[in-house]
Model the fold of this input.
Amino acid sequence: MAGLAILLFAGCSRSNVQPAGTQSSQAAAKAEAPPQIVPGKTAFWPMYKAAHGWASDVIVLRLTAKELTGYKNQDGKAGMWEAVFASPSLHQYRTYTYSIADVPPNIFKGVDAGLAMNWGGITRDAMPVDLSLFNVDSDAAYKAAAGDAAEWLKKNPDKEVTTLEVGDTSRFNAPVWYVMWGAKKAGYAAFVDANTGNVLKLK
Done:
């Protein structure tokens, strides 16, 4: 009986000891950092890869920072980004999103693609973004725009960025970042060359 008790006790002791791998994986899970907001190009390339799988001739029309519940956009970074891609051969466009986290019921972490819609083609107000000239990321563009808006921001410290996006039109020689604080009628807007990082002044 004494021998049986010892064996049972030993068996129970061994069953309570977790494998080292299990302990390390649990510690890693606890130490995992929460999702961080990201600059535009970090979100753009996974979306571009997905869109290129949809259409090999895909072009980029716009990349826009979006709000994500539970995360605050700041310094040119965002919790979610939206990109519009078009296919000249298919005469269609699709909107893709990239999110740093799941926000039920409709937002999923990573890349998500919208339905393909009819597209009328390139216009002077919506031209393709030349990726060879898309060299300045959103955080750098924000910094340049904030420097240009410094005096206005001192007088309006409570104004938040309401628009942060990159696109191209016939008015420019390269894609531009458009950064706006407040509303169009009572805010401040800056255009930043997405190739050079210089603030552009419209004539």
